[in-house]
Amino acid sequence: MGSYSEFYRRSVDDAEAFWAEQAGLVDWQTPPRQILDASHPPFAKWFVGGTTNLCHNAVDRHLATRGDQAALIFVSTETGVERSYSFKELHAEVQRMAASLIELGVGQGDRVLIYMPMIPEAAFAMLACARIGAIHCVVFGGFASVSLASRIEDAEPKVVVSADAGSRGGKVQAYKPLLDEAIKLSKHKPDAVLLADRGLAPMELVAGRDHSMSALRAKHIDTPVPCTWLDATAISYTLYTSGTTGKPKGVQRDTGGYAVALAASMKHIFDGRAGETYFSTSDIGWVVGHSYIVYGPLIAGMATIMYEGLPTQGLDQQPNGGIWWSLVEKYKVTVMFSAPTAVRVLKKQDPALLAKYDLSSLRALFLAGEPLDEPTARWISEGLGVPIIDNYWQTEAGWPILTIANGVEKKPSKLGSPGVPMYGWRVKILDEESGEELTAANAKGVVAVEGPTPPGFMQTVWRDDARFINTYWSSVPGKTVYSTFDWGIRDEDGYFYILGRTDDVINVAGHRLGTREIEESISGHANVAEVAVVGVADALKGQVAMAFVVPKSGDAASDAEVALTLEGEIMKQVSDQLGAVARPARVRFVSALPKTRSGKLLRRAIQAVCEQRDPGDLTTIDDPSSLQQIKQLVAP
Ligand code: AMP
Questions:
Q1: What pLDDT digit, counting tens, does each position of 494-545 carry?
Q2: How far apart are the C-alpha atoms of 480 and 435, rounded to whole Å?
Q3: 512 Cα to the center of ligand 1, angstroms
Q4: Cβ of 376 less than 6 Å from ligand 1
Q5: If you measure from the C-alpha of residue 374 to the centroid of ligand 1, how many angstroms do you get, rounded to a whole number?
Q6: Phi, psi (deg, nearest 5) at residue 271
Q7: CA 311 centroid distance within chain
Q8: How far is CA 11 from each of CA 8, 365, 455, rounded to the nearest angstrom?
Q9: Which pLDDT does position 1 carry in this prediction?
Q10: Which carries the bigger pLDDT value, residue 536 or residue 248?
Q11: Which of 44, 133, 561, 564 could cysteine-pair with 228, CB 3.0–4.6 Å?
């Protein structure tokens, strides 16, 4: 074990030599000619001239050494299915899927939108795209038709891969009707839809457009599909994420840089080794699912567990708060990755459940996606007796920005801090107004990253370089730096603390949601004149969305019964259009919203009042009584 500070220093002072070494962790068809081309900032092109393939690195290259070992372990406590695929079997399934996509007209550079529950076919589809150089765009299965439609319209997929249904807590959630509706709403129409039929919900196939996955699979049971060697800078995928505007951004990622970044993180951060098992409880719809359910563990030669279901139900579909720990024991999981909300859910279960299983294989539990509060960290750390490693990053980043590099040096964690900057990331705390770097300990500012950004970081916003530059690289005055849109501080030992978003993004149970998208959906209701949505602290989910609405007519602001009906309608509208994840926890009715004299909504003041905090400077407020109204509504 070396010293992390030396490791970090080399990664930023001698970045090309450092990353040239890391590039040796993956297979190349042609080695890179140039490690970094940073000649057009803020764009960073990594491993220029190299050709490789993510699917080759995740699957094919392991066939000779561990072909019969487990690669993908599927566990669904929703349907009671448990099934393991070896690397050889995964290789076969991915080729069948790739052949099916090719038959439907998919070629290199074409987009394939994947709207799937957590089933193996979703991973097959992602890997099949990577294999043939198609660009996958995975859309979280919890999103509904309007969210899905905007993503179909922006990605313009040739093919959509989907399924009859998902399931949550034993409740079947039909996907196909939502997909049909989304395609109807979208200006772009895919040529074909490839559908997995799990037998959960009836499905009507649209003639000429919809195809049965099992029929095409059978047809291509023995069709070999070799990996297409791709430029390191070829696009591997786009993944939509929310920001300040209502329109989600397609975060675009490369091939070679991503492969190297993941391989390096598996070694230096997660300390996961080939032949072991990795268990991430995330969903393929999020970046953690891309990096650490599908690609990262497989690239490292590990088996990865893909889990469909709640953390509180067993394979027999009976309540079981120990299901995850039973999987750790059964599959000898060495590295586990989850989110603080999931741990808070488990914390409500019987603590004896933890002691019941042999968890001695586990080396560490990584938690990310939202702030990790001290009581939760302490509870799980005492229960498991292994390091709990908070890690901070974003869809844009692709892999951790702040954490502890356990594979380099086992530095201690500090409660409440995700850790220190990871190798390659030049992380700064900047003053929001002046853009100046704040070097004093514990000074609060915007967490920013100086270029050139490391491998694995987003290339750009899909088809919108201007948006990439204007959104991310132009928000700090006088400097071209990447803004994370998170507040943070750094203590005297160099450990960072994240203090929440600087923009209108909220984080519900680790899911990133844009309040503007929710507001747009609510504005569509016939009786809504104005709306403001803010994120409010919640003991279980971190944050929940709360909506304040000025109704067009009626007595919602004064008549409780009218209010209840309208609240129900609004909640249903958001659920139907965006998905249940985006549904506000509460809708409250007011006669006016707090705004500045120039008409800007005072969201931060509303949020502060909802959280019983001081709303700060209110000299610009137009009508102070509007904030008073909210104060009364949310009084404890
Ligand atoms: P996403 O792009 O969905 O991964 O969401 C990224 C956002 O989640 C970040 O910008 C943070 O606001 C928040 N986040 C992620 N990880 C952490 C963490 N470990 N601690 C605090 N906030 C986090």
A1: 999 999 999 989 999 989 999 999 999 999 999 999 999 999 999 999 999 9
A2: 10
A3: 8
A4: no
A5: 17
A6: 55, 45
A7: 18
A8: 5, 25, 11
A9: 60
A10: 536
A11: 133
Ligand 1 site, residue 449, Cβ cutoff 6 A: no
Beta partners for 403?
A: 420
CA torsion sign for 11, 15, 17, 23 is: positive
Report how far residue 183's alpha carbon sits from residue 188's, in angstroms, rounded to the nearest whole number. 8
Question: Quick check: CB of 110 below 6 Å from ligand 1?
Answer: no
Ligand 1 contacts CB of residue 370 (under 6 A): yes
**CB of residue 418 inside a 6 A radius of ligand 1:** yes
Taking alpha carbons only, the member of 141, 149, 212, 213 closest to residue 172 is: 141
Tens-digit pLDDT profile for residues 39-84: 999 999 999 999 999 999 999 999 999 999 999 999 999 999 999 9
Q: What is the pLDDT of residue 353?
A: 85
In this structure, what token pair is assigned to residue 28?
A: 């190349």
Strand partners, 137: 113, 238
The residue-averaged pLDDT of 379-389 equals 93
Bond before 202 cis per omega within 30 degrees: no
Q: Is the peptide bond before 120 cis (omega within 30 degrees of 0)?
A: no
CA of 369 to the centre of ligand 1 (A): 4
> What's the Cα-to-Cα distance from 41 to each of 17, 179, 408, rounded to whole Å?
20, 39, 30
Among 240, 486, 497, 508, which is best to mutate for testing ligand 1, by the most ligand atoms less than 8 A from CB? 486
Give the closest residue (by CA) to ligand 1 atom 4.
Answer: 394
Q: What's the pLDDT at 245?
A: 75
| Mutational test site, ligand 1, from 370, 415, 483, 581, max ligand atoms within 8 Å of CB | 370
pLDDT cut 90: percent of the chain above it: 91
pTM beyond 0.90, yes or no:
yes
Average pLDDT over the chain reads 95
CA of 361 to the centre of ligand 1 (A): 28
Report CA torsion sign: 449, 452, 458, 463: positive
What is the number of alpha carbons within 13 Å of residue 628 lying toward its C-beta? 4
Q: Is the CB of 178 under 6 A from ligand 1?
A: no
- Verify whether ligand 1 is closer than 6 Å to residue 155 (CB atom): no
Q: For the residues 223-232, what does the mean pLDDT come to?
A: 98
Tokens of 634: 């949310």
Determine whether the shortest distance from the Cβ of 368 to ligand 1 is under 6 A: yes
DSSP 604: H
Greater confidence (603 vs 131) lies with 131
How far apart, in whole angstroms, are the C-alpha atoms of residue 37 and residue 26? 20
What distance in angstroms lies between residue 616's CA and the mean position of ligand 1's atoms?
25
Residues 6+ apart with CB under 8 A from 579: 140, 142, 143, 144, 147
Say if CB 286 and CB 339 are below 8 A apart: no
The number of helix segments (H) and strand segments (E) in the chain equals 21, 32
**Domains located in the chain, CATH noted:** 4-427 (3.40.50.12780), 428-501 (2.30.38.10), 508-634 (3.30.300.30)
**Virtual torsion, Cα 516, 522, 524, 528, nearest 10 deg:** -120
Place of tokens 């400077």: 617
Q: Where are the beta strands (DSSP E) in 473-617?
A: 482-490, 496-501, 505-508, 511-514, 528-538, 542-551, 586-589
Judged against a pLDDT cut of 80, whether residue 351 lies above it is answered with no
All residues at 6 or more sequence positions from 461 whose CB lies less than 8 Å from its CB, including other chains: 249, 250, 251, 252, 467, 468, 471
Residue nearest (by alpha carbon) to ligand 1 atom 20: 371
